[in-house]
Every structure is written in structure tokens, then in C-alpha cells.
Amino acid sequence: MAFTEPVLLKRIPQDPSKRKVFWYDDYVATGGYSALKKATTMTGDDITKVVTDSGLRGRGGAGFSTGQKWAFIPKERKGPHYLAVNADESEPGTFKDRYLIDYDPHQLLEGIAITAIATQCDIAYIYIRGEYHRQAKVLERAIAEAYAHEIFGRQGIFGSNTKLECYVHRGAGAYICGEETGLLESLEGKRGWPRNKPPFPAIAGAFGRPTVINNVETLCCVPHLIERGPAWFKTMGTPKSAGPKLYGMSGHVNRPGVYEDELGITLQYSIENLAGGMKGGKYKAAICGGISMGVLGPNELEVKLDFDDVRFRGGCLGLGTAGMIVLNEHTNMVAALRNCVRFYAHESCGQCTHCREGSAWMHKILSRILDGGGRASDLDMLLELEKTQGIMPGTTICGFADGTAWATRTFINKFYEEFAALCPEEPRVQLTIRRGTQNVAVPMGSNTR
Ligand SMILES: Cc1cc2nc3c(=O)[nH]c(=O)nc-3n(C[C@H](O)[C@H](O)[C@H](O)COP(=O)(O)O)c2cc1C
Ligand code: SF4
């Protein structure tokens, strides 16, 4: 493992007073667009092979192999292909894509253009969350520069055969539009309701045509990969989680912010070496990849932040976005979970009963517990509810409900005593029936006739 210098953040210094937007001229002066020039001399298959060989996995949450995803796009052309760039970034605790767009928009545009060559894409849509006003403006100006310099437009990328148009599409502020098929529906001008799969977007995506959907950070890795190759990429990270990674550190830490390191650093290292240590008290827990992945507990500081260790040793759903919310010893975990679940209850698109009703009931139960009305059976009820929802039990259309489930499961299981203290055993009500002249106690569930 060796992370020696910033890759994705090489143009974005840690010191805020030294940061500036790298517009086209600055970008080119610092080596920008040389990877794209190289890519115009390569075939789409060669580019895809480089990306596959590097082991690059999606940085939007699911960690799926990027090269494999591109390879699903059909080779024969029966109409346009699309690229949907996921800049929705609505997962609580996640703010890394905004940072990349804020200061280095051409890094993303270069990644988009190379991906277009690899996947024979005709139009790229950058789907950006509605709240990112400034970032949408930055992108629009950078895109205009890219048109002016023959990257986008009818002449073809630097005069090559790949002709690419690029547009910014602004969302209206719904979390579910970050889910890739919700995003596509919204892009098509409809309500952002996730679609049943299959068909997968690579076969029938935007407007029914083959579509690649990638996260901003994923695409920003691509120019570096083309320039420096898969072997270099694999010098960073772990065998199954290669490359650099942005960690968005927030919560009770001294230096919240976006930091770059390799995949596979430990949670402890991220808190102490990136975020400047704990603030206001000792470490208690860390939401590791946006709230949908669940929470790492007190004994999990040594867990590695990569796609597998967080899952298998840390008991979470995965690394997610590596948007870390670090919590100190004074945090009320019941209140923290209620906060998470309030978000899910509000943002559920409502198509699936388990997700819509389950999240609403979880919110009601947790609110009652916090208001002093907790019962021992509430914890069983919450754990039963979380087990009923998600793609993994196969009860919902999209992975949103898995997020609700994993947050609830890990918070309650890892901090059971804290929840149990607010949920006392309720006195049992003994049911009786009249038999002759006597009241007879009835065991619960027995036939009372
Ligand atoms: C509820 C939900 C919200 C999501 N939000 C985002 C998001 O804001 N940004 C993102 O890149 N991926 C998000 N994803 C993951 C996308 O569905 C998709 O996997 C990702 O954009 C693919 O890009 P990647 O392979 O480059 O990671 C979300 C998934 C779910 C289930
Ligand atoms: S799981 Fe939830 S958010 Fe996803 S489609 Fe079903 S109701 Fe909508």
C-alpha cells in the first residue's frame, strides 16, 4: 500500500485560502486533457480494459466494477447511447463530489469524455442535486469552455470520431433521485420513482437506450488511470479495493473536511491523521459511508475503510461513499438513529409498502421511546421491521430500504444497552375468563373458548 501524493485532489490544496477554481487554461497548464488526447488514439475496448484491469470500483456507494459496467453496453448501435453522471450527492454525511466540482470541474469533464469514447456515448447528462446552485454554474461555465476547445460538439472530441454533447440537468431536491433508476426517471422529466430491474440501465436506461451511470468521483479517477495505467492504480489500496479515495470527515472531529488517501486506511487513522482527532470527548461511533451503510461501534477503530472490511469485520452494509460522521462519547445513539430514520421516512418515494410504512413506523416508535414511552417490545418490533425491508430480503424496488434497515440494525445491535435503558419491561396484563363462578387465568395465545 502506498499513497504518496494527492491524485484526485492534486489541484485542490488543503489550505482553503489557497484554493481556486481551475478553469480550462489552468487545467491544461497542469497537465489536464493529456489523458483525453491519449484516449482518442485508443479503441473503446482498450480503454475499458485499462479500467477493468485497474480494479476501479464505483465510488457512488455500491462499489461495482466500473470496467465491467462499461462492458455491459451493447456493441451494436441501434440508436444513441447515454452517460448519466450521478452528481446528486444527497446521502447524509457525503460532500466529496461537490468539492471536486467546486474546484476542478475539468477533471470530471475529462473523465466524462474518456468514458464516452469507451462506451460509444453520444450525450452525457450531469444530473446534479438542486441544492448545488454554485456547482451547477461552475459546471456550465466549464462545459462552455470544453465546447470552445473542441472537446464537446459536432466536430468530435479533438477531431476524432466520437461526437459528444454534454448538459447539466438539475434535480429538485429528492434523495431518491440519486438511486440510478430514480435518476433516469427524473432525467426523463418524470417523478423520480426507481424502476424495477431488469432491464438494467446498460440495456435500457435513459429514454430506453443503453446508458452508463457513474458517480463523479469514479469518473474523476479515469483520466489518471489512462495516463498512469492500472499497475500504478493498484499500488494504492487493498487487493480488492484499489486506488485513491476521498473521505468526507464530519461530526465530532477537530478538522472536518474532504481528505484524500488510499482505500483501506483504518477508521482510527482517518480520525487521527486526516481529521485532526476527536473533538469534545472520546470516540464512540462512526457512521462510515453515509447513514445508509450503518454505524461502526466502539471496538471497531481498527476496521479498514475499504469495500470488504467495513462489511465483513465492521458488520455494516459496505463502505458506501466514505462520508464519515464521527460521534463522541456524549452522543445519544437513540436520538441519532431517530434522526436517520426521520430522513428515511421523509425521503421514501412511497412505491413499496415495506419501505413507506416501515420507515414511518420506525420513526414513530423511536420518537415515542425518546419521549419517555419506550417498551421492551419496541426493540423487537424495530428489529423485526428492519428485517422485512430492502432488496436483500427482496421486498422493495430499490436499495433505499436496505439503508433504512442497516442503519436501524447496526445502531440497535451495537448500542443495545443504551436503547434498552429507555425501553423498560412492561408489566404483563394477565387475561382471565369467567368459567362458572370463577375467573380463570388464560395463557396468552391459548384457545379461550
Ligand atoms: C437511495 C439511493 C441513493 C443513491 N444516491 C446516490 C448519489 O447521490 N450519488 C451516487 O453517485 N450514487 C448514488 N447511489 C448509487 C447509484 O444508484 C449508483 O449505484 C451509482 O451512481 C453508480 O455509480 P458508480 O458505479 O460510479 O458508483 C444511490 C443509491 C441508492 C439506493
Ligand atoms: S425501496 Fe423505498 S425508495 Fe425505493 S422504490 Fe421502494 S418505496 Fe421507493
Which properties best describe this structure?
449 residues; alpha/beta; Rossmann fold; Ubiquitin-like (UB roll); 3 domains; 13 strands; binds flavin mononucleotide
Please give the radius of gyration in angstroms.
Answer: 24 Å
Structural shape = globular
Note the beta-strand portion: 5-15%
Number of helices: 16
Each distinct ligand: flavin mononucleotide, iron/sulfur cluster
Mean pLDDT: 95
Count of distinct strands: 13
Distance between the termini: 71 Å
CATH homology superfamily of the largest domain: NADH-ubiquinone oxidoreductase 51kDa subunit
Provide the number of structural domains: 3
Segments where pLDDT lies below 50 for 5+ residues? none
Structural class: alpha/beta
The CATH class of the largest domain turns out to be Alpha Beta
Report on the structure:
The longest helix has 21 residues, at 353-373. This protein is of the alpha/beta class and 449 residues long. The chain has 3 domains: 16-234, Rossmann fold (3-Layer(aba) Sandwich), CATH 3.40.50.11540; 237-328, Ubiquitin-like (UB roll), CATH 3.10.20; 333-421, de novo design (two linked rop proteins) (Up-down Bundle), CATH 1.20.1440.230. The chain has helices at 24-29, 34-39, 44-54, 66-71, 96-103, 105-119, 133-148, 180-187, 216-234, 267-274, 309-312, 333-347, 353-373, 376-387, 400-414, 416-421, and strands at residues 82-87, 123-128, 165-170, 211-215, 237-238, 241-242, 244-251, 257-262, 283-287, 295-296, 323-328, 432-435, 438-441. The strands form 4 sheets. Strands 8-7-11-9-10 form a 5-stranded mixed β-sheet, sandwiched between helices. The protein contains 16 helices and 13 strands. The structure holds flavin mononucleotide and iron/sulfur cluster.
